[in-house]
Design brief:
The structure holds two protein chains of two kinds.
Chain A lengths: L2 E11 L6 E12 L4 E5 L6 H8 L7 E6 L2 E2 L7 E4 L11 H11 L4 H14 L15 H13 L5 E5 L7 H18 L3 E5 L2 H7 L2 E5 L6 E6 L11 H32 L1
Parallel strand pairs in A: 3-8, 3-9, 6-7, 7-8
Antiparallel strand pairs in A: 1-2, 1-4, 4-5, 9-10
Helix pairs in contact in A: 2-3, 2-4, 3-4, 6-7
Chain B lengths: L6 H15 L11 H13 L8 H32 L1 H14 L8 H8 L3 H25 L3 H9 L4 H37 L8 H10 L3 H29 L4
Classes of the chains: A alpha/beta, B mainly alpha.
């Protein structure tokens, strides 16, 4: 397998008022090479925290994240990440953004340009290579960010609500675009979203988190063929199953919350 | 039409000329614009003191500013980037900077003359002090303002410490750095003229020229010198703005 999370837990310690916030609890997850896994759950359930640990930005409080058997300790090119807010370098043109990783590897200028143009074409932005990010729409920016990550050939690609800031129509076309690319390339992708429809449309497996502290409450394999039809019976059925599970777990945690509050009052 | 922005300026000068012409403002206190222009002409052709021509005064002053400003930028920008990056270093250097900063550059003149003698080195040092702090502080502010997500993105793409510094923090801080350069150049220029009041060895310099005009009681040439200083400061800022527009065309 490519990625393995073992008993991963994270507690944030607030040093000013000494209140500990448990963000993740005992996450165990295996992601195979070439697999597309989505993680869904309510806001604040620790999905992003999990990604940040896998990316090497945060340390786990307990447990570990292994990439091909080796513990992830610092950020690096093995684990790529696509952010909701695109995170393009505004002072670099499209091609200069895409070339960033190759530049760090000291790839020759000619080679860099050739490869970057190939990736820009792959994400459908041919002839936009010399534009600055401010000249692009949100959807186009995210395509650039995806090209910039994939050109590095990371072993795992993390996506944190990547289509969360675009309108519904752009969102659908970006989903189709991502699936097309993934089916050709077979990258290993962990896709975080709170949109169940999106998760079912994209992934081979959906992992559901409970609200804080995030725990895995359900894993569903989705064997529908690509491209998927959102209106098909099977699609709707799977979506409903996940939604029901999420709602009941949210209800439970809301109840637990209110009980806890009563206890402290 | 961009010339329209100068309408008010020209209008005010015309009013000034009229007030002078009709004797509303006495000429011995405020010479008319035409007198000032004639003064500038005299400074060009005859010079003040005679033989010390305006062009040479300007070149000497610009030369002093150039060196002071260059050193201020060469030290202020790298130091600012490192201080913006390292909290530890910033914490240690901060009290030193904040205690040196309130000391007016002119108060450094005695010690500067002691260290460097009278000449270009001490003049450049005074200008350096005037320009250095705005450049440093703007650079630090620029680095601190760089979005954390850009730093994280670069790390995930394989950037390490030095690369993050050069490829993310430095370009990300560039807008603020350029603002700092403009403020620094302006203050450096002001400092220079004041520093030249206290004396120069070569006999050249705009500040020195104005003091000479005062000594021989020529208000037209005093104002002529002031006009030249203002005009040059304005031109330098325009040049930096052009550089800024070019460097920051991504904005």
């Amino acid at each position: 397998m490519a990625l393995e999370l073992i008993n991963l837990s994270k507690t944030f310690v607030n040093t000013t008022d000494q209140v500990n916030v448990e963000a993740l609890k005992n996450i165990n997850l295996l992601v195979n090479d070439g697999e597309f896994v989505s993680v869904v759950g309510p806001s604040g359930c620790g999905k992003t925290t999990m990604l940040r640990i896998i990316a090497g930005f945060e340390k786990a409080s307990f447990g570990k994240a292994l990439l091909n058997g080796e513990e992830i300790e610092t950020p690096g090119r093995e684990v790529g990440i696509v952010f909701q807010e695109y995170a393009l370098f505004p002072w670099r043109t499209v091609i200069e953004n895409v070339e960033f990783g190759l530049e760090l590897k000291n790839t020759s200028r000619k080679e860099r340009k050739k490869k970057a143009l190939k990736y820009i074409e792959m994400v459908g932005l041919k002839s936009f290579e010399n534009k600055y990010p401010k000249e692009l729409s949100g959807g186009m920016k995210q395509r650039v960010a995806i090209a910039r990550t994939l050109i590095n050939e990371p072993k795992v690609v993390l996506m944190d609500e990547p289509f969360g800031s675009v309108d519904a129509q752009t969102r659908n076309s970006l989903q189709e675009f991502l699936i097309d690319i993934w089916r050709v390339r077979g990258d290993t992708i962990i896709f975080v979203t709170h949109n169940v429809d999106e998760a079912v449309f994209l992934s081979q497996r959906v992992v559901c988190f409970s609200s804080r502290p995030g725990e895995v409450v359900l894993e569903v394999s989705i064997n529908l063929e690509f491209p998927r039809d959102r209106t098909s019976m099977d699609f709707v059925k799977i979506r409903r199953e996940i939604l029901e599970h999420l709602m009941s777990s949210q209800l439970l945690s809301a109840k637990a919350d209110s009980l806890r509050h009563k206890g402290t009052e | 039409m961009r010339l329209s922005r100068y309408i008010l300026l020209v209008g005010l000068i015309v009013i000034w000329q009229l007030l002078s012409y009709f004797g509303v403002i006495p000429k011995y206190k405020v010479p008319s614009p035409i007198d000032v222009l004639l003064g500038i002409r005299d400074l060009f052709i005859v010079g003040l003191p005679p033989g010390y021509r305006l062009m040479q005064h300007i070149l000497e002053s610009l030369n002093r500013v150039f060196w002071g400003f260059l050193f201020a930028a060469m030290i202020g920008i790298p130091l600012g980037i490192i201080m913006g990056w390292s909290k530890l270093l910033k914490g240690m250097v901060d009290p030193i900077i904040e205690m040196l900063r309130p000391v007016p550059p002119l108060a450094w003149i005695p010690i500067s003359v002691l260290w460097f003698g009278i000449g270009i080195k001490s003049a450049a040092f005074i200008i350096f002090l005037g320009a250095f702090f705005p450049i440093l502080l703007s650079t630090i502010a620029g680095v601190v303002s760089v979005d954390v997500v850009l730093i994280e993105a670069s790390r995930s793409l394989g950037a390490k410490g030095k690369e993050v510094l050069l490829k993310v923090l430095a370009p990300g801080a560039m807008p603020s750095i350029l603002t700092g350069l403009r403020i620094g150049l302006g203050i450096g220029w002001m400092t220079l003229v004041a520093a030249e009041f206290t004396g120069v060895k070569t006999g050249y310099g705009l500040g020195y020229m104005i003091m000479t005009a005062r000594d021989i009681q020529r208000p037209d040439e005093i104002l002529a010198g002031m006009a030249i200083i203002g005009l040059l400061g304005y031109l330098m800022d325009r040049i930096l703005r052009l550089v800024e527009a070019r460097v920051l065309r991504w904005r």
